[in-house]
Amino acid sequence: MRLLIRLLLPLVPWAMLAVAIWRRISRREPREALAERLGYVRRLAKDGSGNGPTLWLHGASNGELASANWVLQALLKAQPGLQVLVTTNTATARAMAAGWGLPGVTVAFAPLDLNGPLRRLLQAWTPAQLITVEAEIYPRRFALCARAGVKVVLIGARMSERSFRGWQDLQPVMAKALSVVTMASTQDQASAGRLLALGLQPGVLRDPCDLKAVAIGLLAAPMLPPQTERTRWLLAASTHAGEEAVVLDAFMAARDRFDHLILAPRHPRRAGEIAALIAARGLAMTARTSGAMPGETVVFLADTMGEMDRWYARCGACIVGGSFVRRGGHTPWEPVRFGCAVLHGPSVENFVAPYAALDSAGGALALAGPAQLADALAGLDGAAQARLAAAAAQILTATGRGDDLIDEIMMLLGAKADHTPLR
Q1: Distance CA 234, CA 311 (A)
Q2: What percentage of the chain's residues is helix, strand, coil (to nearest 5)?
Q3: Average pLDDT of the segment spanning 394-417
């Protein structure tokens, strides 16, 4: 199996090229997408505002780039004239980052992991550093950067147990890629240990920094309704197939405690099948896509994107999706920021350290499986919700400021790490 994987690995970038061509032909991506994936990304003209060093920051999609937005803004503030190329793999993330409108920042699709596109991009941009967010590790990209004298930096680096087991079959390839990393800040200690086992050099490790936690901690405090108006509202956030039925049954068993349920699936395209589950239980429902707002019926189907803050603010308790099926869970920090009492299932591999901290401090309810959910909800009165939310808020505050990470990146740039503290 290892031999087969190693034989097929060089074909992956070519398969990605074929997909990129098809997406352009089918007009699923903008006209410039294929050119950017082939490494044709025009650099900003050098002028008085763009004569400093250049960075290349890469994040796979919306979540990764959003979590690194504060890093990008802190670096731009700390280094006048800095030019940054931000790359990503998806059209939605590209549009999101372009929408930030940050000075000195160019946003593009990431180049394919092929020699030609990578060399074109590196020659045009001559970055001092490649900063990679979370789990994005590209062997050829890293190798060519190292040969060109570009320092390879990992931030928020994450390696789940499942990903680690998969990469073990390609340990020599991973070890070669990780051997050129200049500095690595992981999301947690467990990820650090797995990356070391795969070939990361111990001397490049820095203190862990949970990018999402810092990003959320830096946001202004949200305006919330009085707690008494939220305690009868339950949110199921970013649910996956197999979880909605569990949530609906638990909610029905806990109607003495909760009057309303907001169901916000991870993928709104599943709204039809979820609506069928709701109807099968005889529950009255309205959907956001029909123009409705919560409160008109017992169940509200939040089948849109970009409105999660509304639903967090409305509810006193939040079931985090992806944790009652084998999806690894989603971040707890967003519901924590909005003062929600957090409940989660056993699958939290994507955020082991945050959930461990919350669970041990009484800031979240960890459930062994779906069978426990109804009883947990039945005991979650207003006082219990307030206790969980208060304990979780303390953990969020204690997750770190992120200043050390900015200092490390600035030192690698050869610039003085003199910047205003993040908080």
Answers
A1: 9
A2: 50, 15, 35
A3: 84
